[in-house]
Design a protein that fits this description.
Layout (H helix, E strand, L loop, with lengths): L6 H11 L10 E5 L4 H13 L9 E6 L5 H5 L7 E5 L14 E4 L6 H6 L1 H22 L2 E5 L30 H21 L3 E6 L2 E2 L10 H10 L4 E4 L5 E2 L2 E2 H14 L5 E4 L6 E2 H12 L5 E4 L18 H7 L7 H15 L5
Parallel strand pairs: 1-2, 1-4, 2-3, 4-5, 5-6, 6-11, 7-10, 8-13
Antiparallel strand pairs: 9-12
The protein binds nicotinamide-adenine-dinucleotide (NAD).
């Protein structure tokens, strides 16, 4: 186990998987984006399953080209039946053996990085998804694409919380378009492969997942806040501070993702997040203050050049589809999740932001 994740969280995920874990016994899984925030959890969870919990071990091959993996991703853990390959998924990947599952989690997820790498962001979600779908079709593997809640764009308030049927309100030319639009094309590719080639595809739309293991220099809101707290600096709330989000703790999210991977209905997209509470960024600061029992100073500031403005005003998931079809039920509330995250970041972050 690397120091970058909590052992107790991995144990919680494995325990909550219950008998579903046996679906992976004896199977081969290809994971892309294996050294990113979510990928590192998948690697540790599959490694943990191979400590005698499965009837036959699961073989995991994890790919990543390290473009945004950072120092946390650079340390490759030594886990049973888990192999890491440095590979850019926009290039062909040759694989001789069988594949049962493909989890396509490679992406450029942080707004800071997709502003810096717009073309790479497009390519990984379009060309990378197509290459992985071709492999899934050839191998008759179940394919899961990590899309994003960003495909809903800046929603019409009538459609908040957003159900999977909401078509969204996205700009094709804004500073966020490279991410939002490429994820939408990735979903269209899944739709085409499912409908015209019969490939078993699922799409996951995660809503702001957080937890230990987030890179300090990832620049998403919670690592940013946690780093500034560690450095004794006032928090910077961008824009108006009234924009809302929901936050899903990593153990709930991974359980939801694995449910889609194992049990998702072919061709379907699923929102995975924690719908409660939907809070503004200023309320998030106040919640951090309450949980950490310390005064937290903050300033509401303009978007810095390095961070794309034009962000959605509201975002909250309707998760009824995942609840009904997959039994998904997030259990870690925001206070508990923030407590675990802030305790961890306090001992891990350096306060450099
Ligand atoms: N974490 C969230 O809250 C969240 C929310 C919405 C969507 N997602 C999506 O889920 C996926 C995983 O998210 P994350 O938080 O782990 O992101 P992350 O940025 O931490 O990790 C993504 C990984 O993909 C790798 N990568 C990028 N381009 C690649 C390429 N061409 N070839 C191989 N590897 C490549 C990066 O090096 C990085 O290690 C992403 O596709 C992201 O867009 C995540």
């Amino acid at each position: 186990m690397t120091e970058f994740l909590l052992k107790s969280d991995i144990a919680e995920i494995v325990e909550r998987m219950g008998d579903d874990a046996q679906k992976f016994a004896g199977k081969t899984v290809l994971l892309t984006g294996g050294r990113g925030f979510l990928g590192r959890y998948f690697m540790e969870v599959f490694g943990a399953l191979n400590h005698g919990l499965l009837k036959d071990p699961v073989k995991l091959i994890a790919l990543d080209n390290m473009i945004t993996a950072g120092k946390e991703g650079a340390i490759i853990p030594d886990l049973p039946n888990v192999t890491f390959v440095n590979h850019d998924v926009t290039k062909d990947f040759e694989w001789e053996g069988d594949l049962d599952y493909i989890i396509h989690a490679a992406g450029i997820a942080s707004p800071y990085y997709y502003r810096a790498y717009p073309l790479e962001t497009l390519e990984v979600a379009i060309t990378g998804t197509r290459k992985m779908l071709e492999l899934a079709e050839a191998q008759d593997a179940r394919f899961t694409f990590f899309s994003s809640s960003e495909i809903y764009g800046d929603p019409d308030p009538k459609h908040v919380p957003m159900a999977e049927s909401y078509r969204g309100n996205v700009s094709c030319q804004g500073p966020r378009a490279c991410y939002d639009e490429s994820k939408r094309v990735g979903e269209t590719l899944c739709y085409i492969f499912h409908n015209t080639h019969g490939t078993h595809t699922n799409t996951i739309r995660p809503f702001n997942v957080f937890g230990p293991g987030m890179q300090e220099t990832d620049y998403r809101v919670l690592p940013n806040f946690a780093s500034r707290i560690k450095g004794g600096l006032p928090l910077h709330v961008y824009g108006t501070g009234n924009q809302t989000r929901t936050f899903c703790y990593i153990t709930d999210a991974i359980i939801g993702f694995l449910s889609v991977i194992i049990k998702g209905v072919a061709g379907e997209a699923y929102n995975i997040g924690n719908p409660d509470p939907e809070i503004s960024m200023v309320e998030l600061v106040q919640t951090i203050e309450k949980v950490s029992a310390q005064k937290v100073e903050y300033d509401v500031v303009e978007y810095p050049d390095s961070y794309p403005a034009d962000e959605p005003n509201r975002r909250a998931p309707d998760i009824r589809k995942a609840r009904v079809q997959l039994g998904f039920n997030p259990t870690v509330g925001i206070d508990e999740g923030l407590e675990r995250f802030l305790d961890w970041s306090d001992t891990t972050y350096t306060g450099i932001q």
